[in-house]
Amino acid sequence: MRDFGARSGDDIHMIYTGGTTGMPKGVMWRQEDIFYSLCGGIDAYTNEKVQRPEELSEKCAAGAGPIVFFPIAPLMHGAGQVSTIRGFIHGDTTVLVRKFDADEAWKLVDRERVNVLGITGDAMARPLADSLQESISNYDLTSLFSIGSSAAIFSQSIKEQIMALLPNLLVVDSVGATETGMNGIKIAVPGEETQGGPATVKASRDSIVIDDDYNEVVPGSGDVGRIARTGNIPLGYYKDPERTALVFPVVNGRRYSVPGDFAKVEEDGQITLLGRGSIMINTGGEKVYPEEVEGALKAHPAVFDCLVVGVPDQRWGEAVAAVVQFRPGTSATLEELAAHCRDHVAGYKIPKRLYLTDAIVRAPSGKPDYPWAKQFAIKAGESEKA
């Protein structure tokens, strides 16, 4: 056995996050904290902490044994990185690819007898679902028992498509942030959620929703607050004390991580995620969270991918605009998309403007590039007026 020397839970593991708006930021985690928050130290289903890391491998050995795990998300992204580390702790076999290709991914699931597939939202789920729809008979996917998504919106319409093709598959949606760790988890059930609605998840240990005074939002009140986490959270941002003080405040002796995701608390204590405050649209005084509208749009059969942004408007301050990539050979008008969305979201959330693109710009991890979408929509709007 190699001698690695003394180790400490205080050693730093740093993950860079691009977030939704700006340059990548280094998030500094103590290794003990990231183990509990992201690498399996807290059971995602029971919220119980393990007392020592070896418990994970012992539980695995006592149960079904190690699995074959395929994280499609790139290792530069937190989702792919921490899930791979978790697999190492379990003793899993990990399958890696250099780039994402939906057809090749299914071939690998078949060839390597993959048990669990890890993705980052619709940017990967949509191509996987479409590829499966076209060629499911070409593969033996009996080894696959779960698909898990994190770090980006996973629309119910795409979950439904995958579950219809693989009815015995467990589809898991988890929400969180590099700055907090996992905030909640949801096992998808066919027909349970409205297509286009925001994600509602079981809250993770130490995850709460707070108001502006750092009081917990009352379940069932309908009040909107920000998701916060206490306990095992990062030390802060690398060489950025001002941003650290803003996102990791200490209030009444208690340290929080509050990256800016807005949410409500349902009567049963579950959290309904609304979206990041930095991309929220204020239209006529009403707040619109893009991910909810995007989920509604993606349930339309002509929409392959989309982003929703606010653009300047003389009457409303900001107007809801949809930047849409249609499926090849399909199209829809703004009026048709608006009529479709009306079945899923409130009237003031329905896009008032539609701009078409050949491809939605996303990071390699699948995260949306909202600054690009906003500039694209503004320039397209100016061109229409010219």
From TrEMBL:
Pfam families: AMP-binding (PF00501), AMP-binding_C (PF13193). The keyword ATP-binding does not apply. Residues 292-367 form the AMP-binding enzyme C-terminal domain. Keywords: Ligase. Residues 12-231 form the AMP-dependent synthetase/ligase domain. Belongs to the ATP-dependent AMP-binding enzyme family. This is Unannotated protein. It comes from freshwater metagenome.
